[in-house]
């Protein structure tokens, strides 16, 4: 049986057959020349028409078509998953500086939100901020950081309400317990109903808790104190939207929860965001707080969508919180926590 001559060099007997065009070649060098001359890919086109008689006579053609359909199905499946994952980040990362511009105020230099100056002072390398809902200023960390990835706050079309991601930090006798995160909390939900009591009781080491006795404090993320935790008292009956009104948060709210009020005679009261210590008298404290809060309360809210009462249990995610070392439990509160009173 004589072999066909190589279609490229025409000298040697052919050894190889091109899967795409069935050209005969004798060596690797001739194969490369064949692809270069004819611009052949050397791969079979799975979409090429094959007559039924050839398809039934050759099992390899049936296997080729079957594998081709499996690959198409896999690509469609992976494409849908990628689309779902990317869609979750669309509303969170589609920020524009023009959307954050508020209505000009005649008495404010450069018509800039006064809170931005403090944010730039505490976070000099963070430039992305936005204002959401009840004039809440959100500081956005670079994409890829853990807190940025955990933030799922945004408008939920399914429930027709704005939902928040909230980090809860149980606080007992000056000691921070194991923290956890709740997702998809509607902004109309009261704080006492938003926190999952079963998870909170487990973190505090108690069998049960009464939600009416809980005390809530918002973490002051722009505190100028390097050795103290600055807290802003919140009312347990107010909604998330009201609690976060005119506040500054880092990605999403960090709320401390205690079964008893965090009150101590040694605590220093701060009025406004990082404005310095207040006078000891009640009159001077009230005056300072009101004068500094006027600039924040006059800002307009950016969104007009209102939430509905939460009817779904939140999801939780736990993380370790650092313990306060080197101090006695009964002295820890007075030494490391300061209360920031923001008069309404």
TrEMBL record:
Which CDD domains does the UniProt entry name for this protein? zf-HIT_BCD1
Q: Does the keyword Disulfide bond apply?
A: no
Domain HIT-type intervals: 6-40
Q: Where is the composition biased (Low complexity)?
A: 283-292
Which one Pfam family would you cite for this protein? BCD1
Gene Ontology cellular-component terms listed: nucleus; pre-snoRNP complex
Query: Which UniProt keywords are given for this protein, alphabetically ordered?
Result: Metal-binding, Phosphoprotein, Zinc, Zinc-finger
Q: Report biased composition (Acidic residues) as residue ranges.
A: 293-305
Q: Name one GO biological process term.
A: box C/D snoRNP assembly
Query: Family assignment?
Result: Belongs to the BCD1 family.
PANTHER family the UniProt entry points to: BOX C_D SNORNA PROTEIN 1, BOX C_D SNORNA PROTEIN 1-RELATED
Protein name as catalogued: HIT zinc finger
